[in-house]
Amino acid sequence: MKSSLIVFCLLSLCANLYSQTDTSAARFFPAAIGNAWHYRDQPVKTLTRDSITAGNRFLFFDTSSVPEYAIDSALHIVQYPTDPYQRRLRYKLNANLMQWWIVSDTSFGPPAIAARVDSVFWGSLFGVTTQMQAIGFYYAQLVGDTIIPLNWRNEEYLAAGFGFFLSFYDPPWVPNEELVGCVIDGRRYGTLVSVRDQGIFPVVPISSRLYPCFPNPFNPSTAISYFLSEAGKVDVTVYDVLGRAISNLVDEAQDAGFHSVRFDSKGLSSGVYFVRLTARHFTATTKIIHSK
Length: 292
Description:
Blueprint: H1 2-19, E1 36-39, E2 45-53, E3 56-61, E4 69-71, E5 76-79, E6 88-92, E7 100-104, E8 112-125, E9 128-143, E10 146-159, E11 163-168, E12 175-184, E13 187-190, E14 209-210, E15 221-228, E16 232-240, E17 245-254, E18 257-264, E19 271-279, E20 282-290
Antiparallel strand pairs: 1-2, 1-12, 2-3, 3-4, 4-5, 5-6, 7-8, 8-9, 9-10, 10-11, 11-12, 12-13, 14-15, 15-18, 16-17, 16-19, 19-20
């Protein structure tokens, strides 16, 4: 009887936690008027107004008279919707894992660009645990309705409740865009520079983090990228499923900021491995899969 009561309480607790967690697709692109995003080395972008035309919601940022995004009822996010030369279907928020869509075709010259949801996972951003998506963009060949991916182009990451927060392009495998602060539904996160006074709001600083490795699965190598909130001794080690250290990639003092190291699987058998990052008071582990 006691064990049944314990199980019931645990199930009730899980159900309650789940009911409080908003993972609906629309949360991956929060678009309330007044929301603002600050990406490293870029000015703050504030969503200042919108308009509805033919069922599409057009979003305007700062003082621009041209919409930067449009959202339709299917949660398709079109960037530069009124520009026929730059218009692209950047995100399909309701896309399933590994589902492809055409970002831009060859109407104004090849190559086409296609995208898919490469992975869905849970992560932490500004101290908030939330669901995340990794969107892979690829140069592709279009044969009728068939998308044939050719080469990887870049990877973008979305976080529920925050939107786009990180992108990687070609080597050296360091983030191209990194969200350092934002205002979502009136709440401030991270470091946000005020356009009005260029002052810094006293909010929670960015914490250290270990980013998802890319590519994953991989062969023969993958990029391991991480952000350090403070300088200190850093250790990055790859382990097998038995907990044996396979390769020590980093064992040194490093400055605060972004870092990236490549792991080469030469001589290793196919299977699951784990990357462990230890930096002062921060420890994180991520799974990687070597596939021959």
